[in-house]
Amino acid sequence: MKKCSGFISLLLILCMLCSVSLAETHLNVAWWGNQVRNDSTQAVLDLYTKENGTTFDVTMNSFGDYWTTLATASAGGQLPDVLQHSTAYIQQYVDNGLLLDLTPYMESGALDVSHIGQSVIDLGRMSGGVYGLCVGTNSMACLYNKTLLEQAGIELHDLMTMDEFMALCKEIYEKTGYKTDLGYGTESFFNYVTRGLGKPLYADGKLGIGVEEAEYFYGLYEQAMQEGWLLGGDVFASLVAGSVEQNPMVYGSSPDTMSWCAFNWSNQLKAMQAAAPEGVELALTTLPSPDPVKSGFVACSMYFSIAASTSEPDESVKFLNYFVNSVDANKILLAERGIPVSSVVGEAIAEDLDPLTKEVVAFVNNVVVPNSSETPAPDPDGASEIYAASRELVEQISYGAISAKDAAQTLIDTANDVFNR
Length: 421
Fold this sequence. Notes:
The protein is α+β, with helices and mostly antiparallel strands. It has helices spanning about 1-20, 35-50, 65-75, 90-95, 105-110, 120, 145-150, 160-175, 185-195, 210-225, 235, 270-275, 290-295, 315-325, 325-335, 345-350, 355-370, 385-400, 405-420, and strands spanning about 25-30, 55-60, 80-85, 125, 130, 135-140, 140-145, 200-205, 205, 260-265, 280-285, 300-305.
């Protein structure tokens, strides 16, 4: 009888061990990005699984598709546990109570921010809490086909004014046949330009500009269309929005459907170079502006947030802490999401960075930082509707279907409707 009892006890222990094994932690993680980001992020997840036992389901999309997928998930109460977030959308997720406040975890030390500057932490502070941890810093940049310009004997310089840039685009078109993607679908370019006019696109949760500033912005497209060097909306109709691999600077069959430049974020240079045709070397400079110093700013490249609905808040925080603070993880990521926010990590991986990433770090630190203004707050709820309306207006201008003056008034009316709801 004692032997039987002992055997039963052993079985119970084995069953308990099995149940612990079967109850391993599982997280859903989502991000947008390119193939370089997808590969490196998956490698970090695999390393975390090896070290901690946590398994992952992942959702990875191009930028445009990502937000469509996330909106569907949020409507169904099925947000991923850990999700990449953008300044363009995070405020509306906070306003709708969809994200977890990270403040208690920072205060307890579970999310170690001791090597992250307070100004960087504050980039994720809104509505009384910290709802996103900035995982990298970068800046807006004009990525360009250096090989093409050198072959044409054309030089450009940092901190170009808008007038200088517009003249340059015309010269490039006349000498090479390549048109210009004047920030089509690059939402932050609108704000960048109006900052250079002395007015941010948004202020106090409302539109911060008037008809005059909007007309200036749309007038750039009108002038470009009239002079013949604008890459119009028809080119983008068959492309995946936000896809690095299908950006017209690296994708296309002729100069008439391609651009010599791309308005993007500085940390996209490596991925864009990977997608460029063989023999094409890319480089970066500042975006054009009526006043480049007023426009320029160091940005949070993206946040990582945790869904308020997660059933695994502690494990989600543990993973986020690892993603930001682990040197081993960041030797895989290698600053693809921007300059690491942890000073310890930044120093540890500095010598491991490839030449292109070192170029980006030098650009941000040596060109942007000394010539920039205050970082804008995250876009208010409703901004996505305004950006969508603006993209349509730019497309209509490229077809000659609307004037810059009429587009400006339409934008102001649309924005007022959105914010007055």
